[in-house]
C-alpha cells in the first residue's frame, strides 16, 4: 500500500522551493496520489535548456520501498530516454532505488541525466549511436525537439485556449486540461471529449 502521508509531504517539499529548483509535482487526477505529473526544467548549457519537461509518475503499491515508475510525457531526444515511449533508463528508477530517496531526488536525477547522457547504456540505440558518431547532429536534433515539444509560448497557449473555448468547453477546464497534458492541443481535446 502506498504511504500517502509520505507522498503528501513529498509534494509539499517539491513545490515549496519551485522558484529555485523549477521542479514541481502535482496529482494527475483530482484525488489520486498514486498517479502524478512531474515537471523539470531543461538544464542550463545543454540542448534542453529553456524547455519544460513533463514526467508521468506512477507510484506502485510498494512505494517508497519500490521505485516510482517514471516516463517522459514530453518528447525528448536523448540516449537514455526512449524517443517513442518516454521510458527512462536510470539506475535509481530500477535496482538502485532506496526508500531514503524521494520523488524530488528522483526528478533531480532525471534532470542530471539530461546533462550527462550515458550512451553506453542506452534506452534508445538510434539516439545513442548519433550521440557517439555525429555529436553535432545529436545536439541539433535534441535542440529542435526541445523547441518543438518542450517550449510553449504564452501566445500559443492563449490561442489554444481560445480555439477550445470556441468549441464549447469552459475556459477554466480548458486551461487545467492543457496544463495537465503539457500544452498539447490534440491531447487536451481528446481528454476534454472523453470527460
UniProtKB/TrEMBL annotation:
Keywords: ATP-binding, Nucleotide-binding, Transferase, Ubl conjugation pathway. GO terms for molecular function: ATP binding; ubiquitin conjugating enzyme activity. Residues 2-151 form the UBC core domain. It is an enzyme of class 2 (transferase). It comes from Sesamum radiatum (Black benniseed). Residues 156-195 form the UBA domain. Its EC number is 2.3.2.23. SUPFAM superfamilies: UBA-like, UBC-like. The active site is at residue 89. This is E2 ubiquitin-conjugating enzyme. Belongs to the ubiquitin-conjugating enzyme family.
